[in-house]
Every structure is written in structure tokens, then in C-alpha cells.
Amino acid sequence: MKPLLSRPSPTVVTAPDRPTLDDPSLRSTWSHRAWIASGCTTVLISLAKAITGAGESHRWLEPALAGLVGYILADLGSGVYHWGIDNYGSASTPIFGTQIEAFQGHHKWPWTITRRQFANNLHALARAVTFTVLPIDLACNDPVFHGFVCVCSGCIMFSQQFHSWAHTTKSRLPPLVVALQDMGLLVSRSQHAAHHHQPYNNNYCIVSGIWNEFLDQLMVFEALEMILFFKLGVRPRSWSEPNSDWTEETKSIPSQIAAN
Amino acid sequence: MASLTLPNHSLPSLLPSQKPTYPLSHNVPIFSKSSQSQFYGLQVSYSSSLSIPSLSSVKGSIFAKVNKGTAPPPFALKDQDGRNVNLSKFKGKPVVVYFYPADETPGCTKQACAFRDSYEKFKKAGAEVVGISGDDPSSHKAFAKKYKLPFTLLSDEGNKVRKEWGVPADLFGTLPGRQTYVLDKNGVVQLVYNNQFQPEKHIDETLKLLQSI
């Protein structure tokens, strides 16, 4: 008689391509961790240059203000990037294909982001930050510019973590994170939940979310979509009824997740 | 609440710059039939001595434009069933002519559905509703069928009528403008309303006007 499994398997019904709780695709690899390390290193070097430069010049206000601008613009950047990935291209698009596929999977199974390990979740952004910030670290010493760069790139790199927190139930979040969300410094759970409704065409920003109301009320993304439609003939996904590849799968939610 | 609404009043072009949105061609539409026609900003008398080269240097002022109080130039366009429709067909009753960017785009769909939902009110006011865009008749047919639109959609292929009427483009010329004209039963324009990003307001404004004339 064969022994029973020593580890209980999750009580889920798996559909094709649907990740399970212990799906290997949600786990961090050493490659992921290496990209996190390199991304963080480049951001920390930029931060160090900002601090030492400010210390040497005794001018702290400008680098700090530049950092604030970086935080504000990181939110805008996250929204524009998110809008682009959600609406255009496909899994076969060069460079962005895997991201587009990941966002598609996220819309279908929003809960998986809360089950991704840290480096797995952030490594793509960490890679982009490495390639962008390293040349700046090597070429530039201006503390004001570095004040902007370290905060902006740091927020962008960690936006996936903020995004994950925005999908996590309150009871599972550290109190500090809840406080930052309630203060509007990090994108809130309710604000981001508004994005996860058909046709997925609003609340795109995922750092602090401060741009969301402005962008949505002024219909900035709709205007951009119209311009791209008339200039290039491409229709964004949000104009059509979302097909099953993009809509949230609400059936057979894992019981462990539902219980949390 | 901040918005991109253009102020609601009857001037047709509310863009800060009056640069021409379409190139001047030597086929300037001079409407010699009607003495009421006027070029934007200029009252021109029709004579053979009208000098095009000297006027062409005045940017944005030479295009025939349909304003409040003027009668628009006639047109004959195909509807969603491929039949020719003349503007003169609607003489004797008020008509709402609304120019919109394109079928199956979010704003235009909202606008068309809003006209559909209020169509009974337009009929009660004795008015007809006509939508015009650059899409071809088959696109209009599919659009009308999908959203059960009860009114006429006309194909202004090449945007010829849009240019003749002087519908301004938005966003630095990248987007065909969303502008609605209400013609009274004599065919004279009584309202010109422009609003790209709040399409449902076109219905409110036109109904308000129709109920007052």
C-alpha cells in the first residue's frame, strides 16, 4: 500500500494554467534575488550620492524636494506603464510580452500577487531600475538629481510590493503599511480594487495612487487611447468587452485564500 | 471638479489657437448661392476679383464655417443602408446634426446611446437626429445594429462635410472634434455645442434648445 502524502494538498480545483498556492512560478529564484540585489544597490548608491552631496554643499532642501517630486512622478509613471501594458500588445510582443502576460494573469487571478515571493514579484522592475540607474550613478554626482532618482526609482521598484499590499486583506498587513495606505501615501486597497472591475480602464497608478482621481476625472487615458486609435489604428483592450483571458476568475477561489 | 469640458456656449471654435486644422486648398468652398455665407471672421462679397492668394495668408480665417444664425452648406451623404441622404430632406422640421469622432469608441458609443435613450423626447419636439462621422456605411450599420440606434448615421468619408462646416479638431488636431448643431425648421443653425469628453451633455443641451424654439 502506498503511503499517503505527508503534506496536505490545497483544496482547490485547478483549471488549465491556473496557479496553485505552491505553484513554482510564484517562488523566487536566485536570478530574481540577484536582480533585486542589483536594483537595490543602484538605488542605494544614488541615495548615498544624494546624501553626501547634500552634506558637502549643506543644501538639503533641494535634494529633499527633488525626492518628493520623484515620489509624485513615480506614481504617474506607474499609471502610464500599467495603462500601456493593460491595453496594448500581447504575450508575443518583444521585450514586454512576459509583462503583458503577467498582467493578464493578474487580472484573471488577482490573488496570486499576494502569494508571490518578494523577489519573484519585484525582479522585473529591479532589472529595469538596474539598467536605468546604474549609468546615472556612474555618470552623475549632482545631489539634487540623485535625490530625484533614488526616490523615483526606489518607488518604481517597490511599486509591485505596494501593489501586492493593495491586494492583501487588512488583517494580514503590517500596521505600518495599513497606516501608510490610510494616509494616502501608499495606494489603498479600496482604490486599487476599483481598477479590478470591467472594463479595467481606471485607477491605473499603484505607488501612492494620488494621480488616479486627476487622471480619471480628466479622462487622460481615454484621450491618449483616442489619439492612438486615430493615429495608429490600434484599439485598446479596455474598449472591448474583456474576454475570458482578462476577466477575473471568480469561481473556485482557493478555500485558504477565501478564509483569509 | 476639473475637466476638459469646453465652455458651453455657441461659438464653434473654443481652442486657444485658431490655426487652420485643414490645409487650404485652392478649392476654397465659396458659396456663391447664399449671401448669408461668411468666412470665419470675414464678411466676403462674392466677386470674380476675390483674391485667394492675399486671403490665404490670413490663418484660419478663410474657411467656410457654420455658425449660429447661418444656414449650413447642403450635403448629400450615404446613410447606414447605403442610401443617399440630403440635408434638405429635413427642411420643415428641426434637426440635430452631431459630428462625432468614430463608431465603436467609448465616447461616441455613450453619445449615440444617450441620443437613443432620449430619442422619444427629440421626436416629441418634432426633431430629427443625424449622426455624422468619417466611418463607412458598413461600420455605421454594424454600430447602429449593435446599439439599436433608431436614427440616421451618415458617412462623411474623407471628412469633407466636417471640414466644410468647420468642426474644430481637438488635442492639437489629433482628434476629430465632437460638435453638434441644432438647425431650426428653416434650416438655420440655432445652437453649436462642442464637448469632446462629456458626450452625454450634447443631449441635454440640444433638448434644452429644442424645447425653447
Descriptive overview:
Chain A: InterPro entries: Chloroplast_FAD_CarF (IPR052864), Lipid_desat (IPR019547). Chain A: Residues 71-239 form the Lipid desaturase domain. Chain A: It is a multi-pass membrane protein. Chain A: Belongs to the fatty acid desaturase CarF family. The complex is a heterodimer of chains A (260) and B (213). By secondary structure, chain A is mainly alpha-helical. Chain A has helices spanning 30-57, 61-87, 97-108, 118-139, 143-166, 175-183, 189-193, 212-217, 220-232, 255-259. Chain A has one domain (30-232). In chain A, 58% of the residues lie in helices and 0% in strands. Chain B has 213 residues and is α/β, with parallel strands linked by helices. Chain B has a domain at 76-211: Glutaredoxin. Helices cover 23% and strands 15% of the residues of chain B. In chain B, β6 and β7 (189-194) form a beta hairpin. Residues 1-62 of chain B have low confidence and may be disordered. Chains A and B meet through α9 of A and loops of B.
Largest β-sheet summary of chain A:
none
By secondary-structure content and strand pairing, the structural class of chain B works out as alpha/beta
The ordered string of helix (H) and strand (E) elements of chain A is: HHHHHHHHHH
Global morphology of chain A: globular
What is the count of distinct domains of chain A?
1
How many runs of DSSP E, i.e. beta strands of chain A?
0
Give the helix level of chain A as a range of percent.
55-70%
Give the full name of the CATH homologous superfamily of the domain at 76-211 in chain B.
Answer: Glutaredoxin
CATH architecture type of the domain at 76-211 in chain B? 3-Layer(aba) Sandwich
InterPro entries (chain A): Chloroplast_FAD_CarF, Lipid_desat
Keywords (chain A): Membrane, Transmembrane, Transmembrane helix
Organism (chain A): Morella rubra (Chinese bayberry)
GO biological process, one term (chain A): fatty acid metabolic process
